[in-house]
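2024-03-11 09:14:02 DEBUG pipeline.ingest accepted 1 chain
2024-03-11 09:14:02 DEBUG pipeline.ingest length=270
2024-03-11 09:14:03 DEBUG pipeline.predict start
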Amino acid sequence: MSGLRTAIAETRNHESEALDVLAENADTVAGKLETLENRYRVASDALTGFAGDLETAQQQVAPIVTENSEASAQLAYASSRIRQYEQQRLMTTDPTEMIELNEQLIRLHSRANTYRTTVSGAETRFAAIIETLRQSGRDAASRLRTAMDGDGLNDSILDNITGWVQENAEILKAIRQVLQVITTALSVLSFVFPVLAPFALAAGLLTAGLGLLLAASGEISWVDFGLDVLAVATLGVGAIASKGVGQVVNLMSDWYNESVQDASTWRVGS
């Protein structure tokens, strides 16, 4: 990387604004490239090691699979013959035939047990090889995560979101302020017009969500975000209060209508 730094620094002699900017940031650029080189080196070593373990596992598993397949076939055949002889034994009444069938069944059960042991052993060895391979994969993934988390390069999804928020912080702050005003206005109006309460809540939630992004990116304090959340929480109180106000308005309207009706009736009676 020393050669790269020198080459980048020499671009100061070229008539190019882009190259001038690159030259001014020669150490930073070279440092990041060194970091990337180290990350890819670690990734290469980790994946190469896992590939070797995978090849070894495949070589170890191949004869086990064959052994298991053959033993399973023999076990299935022996089990089938056992069922056949057991059926014959139930039907025979000849003592000599009964003795021969029992002898056949003893031999078949012995073979079946041998095949069953072979199958079980093959499955156990297969599982051990697979677990070893899984551990190799976990180790490789751990090495990759360690390299990525410790090299200082911010390239995760969260880093990308945070970076975007920081780049557009001023616009997002302005939007948040507008939403705060809208939330406040709708909250006040919902006391008189309860139908506006859901819109006030939606605006409050948008404000809080935007505040969360800004706070997580360090653009506003967590106290400011807490105030946004408090505003959303108090909207519930506003909704309850608005219902009460609506009921009072309805009662006053009913009282006014009854009074007007009574007055009209009194005039007619007079």
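2024-03-11 09:14:41 DEBUG pipeline.report The radius of gyration is 40 Å.
2024-03-11 09:14:41 DEBUG pipeline.predict end
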